[in-house]
Design a protein that fits this description.
Layout lengths: L4 E7 L17 H8 L2 E5 L6 H10 L5 E5 L2 H5 L1 H9 L8 E7 L5 H6 L4 E6 L8 E5 L2 E5 L4 E4 L5 H11 L5 E6 L4 H13 L3
Helix pairs in contact: 6-7
Length: 197
């Protein structure tokens, strides 16, 4: 029996379908989104009001996991990384840092990240002192929760196959469907529930 629990969400709050009510103020989008979906990925240098999002996460009793993504170029520049982290350091317990990599980060980068929840996704194994897993063809290195980040557009059969393979992680897993609209996210969530995840 798998112990996997999927928290399902997308990258960014700009859903193009009719997800948000027409009269919903833009600053209320996160609150509305988080009532239905339990994870969200945003770039660490997002234009969204992170202070407001962190406050809402802090004030809610509902489970929600925020993923702040970093580009590999931002991760390799320690000065730029330190600046980015300084803007979110007060809220580090409320998010996971995520980066898609093709090489192991340098020790000075890992030193900057030592107090953060992190997850790296790569096409090859990374030599890091983190929990490692290989799932759906990706190498994950993480210290809290694994983040599966996919830009694939799936039909229902592919959603099911992906979830079944990813369930081998046997832990709470943040599944970010990068380009998914609300209908696709709802289908993924329903299929996960039907499969018992």
């Amino acid at each position: 029996m798998s112990e996997t629990e999927f928290l399902i969400g997308r990258s960014g709050l700009n859903l193009q379908d009719d997800f948000y009510p027409d009269d919903l103020p833009e600053e209320w989008r996160f609150d509305y989104y988080s009532t239905l979906f339990k994870t969200l990925s945003l770039p660490i240098d997002t234009d969204e009001d992170l202070d407001q999002i962190f406050e809402e996460i802090e004030d809610t009793e509902e489970e929600f996991e925020l993923v702040l993504s970093i580009k590999q170029a931002q991760l390799t520049d320690t000065q730029q990384l330190a600046t980015l982290l300084s803007e979110v350091a007060d809220y580090q317990q409320y998010f996971t840092l995520f980066c898609e990599l093709d090489q192991t980060p340098k020790p000075e980068v890992m030193a900057l990240l030592k107090n953060y929840q992190i997850c790296f996704q790569s096409t090859k194994a990374l030599a890091l002192d983190l929990t490692a897993a290989v799932v759906v063809g990706k190498h994950l290195s993480f210290n809290q929760y694994p983040v599966l980040y996919s830009s694939e557009v799936w039909d229902e059969k592919q959603m099911r196959a992906y979830l079944e393979e990813a369930s081998s992680l046997n832990t709470k897993t943040l599944l970010i469907c990068k380009f998914a609209e609300s209908e696709a996210l709802n289908k993924v969530r329903i299929i996960a529930e039907l499969l018992g995840f």
